[in-house]
Amino acid sequence: MVITFTRGERLMNRKEIYQHITDKIIEQLKKGTIPWRKPWRQGLPSNYITRKPYNGINRLSLLCNDYPSPYYLTYLQIKQLGGQVLKNQKGHLIVFWKVIDITDEEDQHVDEFPLLRYTYVFNLTQTNLYKPEENEPLKILECEHLLNNIRPEPVIRYNTSECFYDKRNDYISIPPMSQFTSREEYYSSLFHELVHWTGHQSRLNRQDLDYATEELVAELGSSYLCAITGIEQLVLKNQASYLDYWLKRLESDTAIFSKASRLAQDAVNLVINV
Question: Which pLDDT score is estimated for 39?
């Protein structure tokens, strides 16, 4: 068996990944910044060449950065486009799995196993390829278009007095838009409950998830949906206590954000029919 790696790729174990991402998030939280609650006019972190958004823990990690462009490239991709990395710029770690094919002496398939690898990407603004006028935002879906195309269609009770998801009866309750401070607050609240809705046993079945992790899944998932539709999440009224809470959770469980980001991605994929 021969294992080959593309230039720049390395092996990494899960514990190292969790610690790396945790350190980045803690750094942001200590600065008073919630990395997954940022202005979304630029769109989700995506590969510049394929235009595909990064998923899971890579998305969450890249959201910790603060660039005017959402686009990233590997060093090899930059070179292929005839570009260069600007002086004193550091890359950002992303991870991915590669399935290794095990063969016998006659080159016949015997088994396979996954290897966790990592490489580094650079934001477009860290290269000489960046041109502000070409920094177009990713294509986004309008909020109502997104809501009208969810399958299976959720039961949403509009014009109620409270905003919540009723797991037992499987419906979402949302007050009228006039009771919210803005259109953005209305839709981001509705998106939060939609992510809870995806966890029903007939859909993604997150029934056994503890309350704190489920809330984080809903928080991350609603942030991703806000990014897709191009709306901003408002600053939390209790942001200080919110930051303090997640700092304490990260100290006791470095894997929570990796797990939650994966589950949030699954929830978003269900909502947007991917």
Answer: 55
Q: How confident is the model at residue 50 (pLDDT cuts 50, 70, 90)?
A: very high
Q: Residue 138 has which token pair? A: 């990713």
Q: How far apart are CA 110 and CA 229, in angstroms?
A: 46
pLDDT interval class at 113 (50, 70, 90): low
Which of helix, strand or coil describes residue 174?
strand
Structural domain boundaries of the chain? 1-137, 140-274
What is the pTM (predicted TM-score) of this model?
Answer: 0.71
Both structure tokens of 31? 């600065």
Selection from 168, 169, 163, 160 nearest residue 194 by Cα: 163
Per the omega criterion (within 30 degrees of 0), is the bond before 68 cis? no
What gap in Å lies between CA 211 and CA 156, rounded to an integer?
A: 22
Beta-bridge partner residues of 25: none
Task: Please choose, from the candidates 201, 181, 199, 177, the residue with its C-alpha nearest in 3D space to the C-alpha of residue 190.
Answer: 177
Check the CA dihedral 56-57-60-66 and report its sign. Answer: negative
Mean pLDDT lowest among 144-148, 236-240, 254-258? 236-240
Where in 138-239 does DSSP place strands (E)?
A: 156-158, 164-166, 171-174
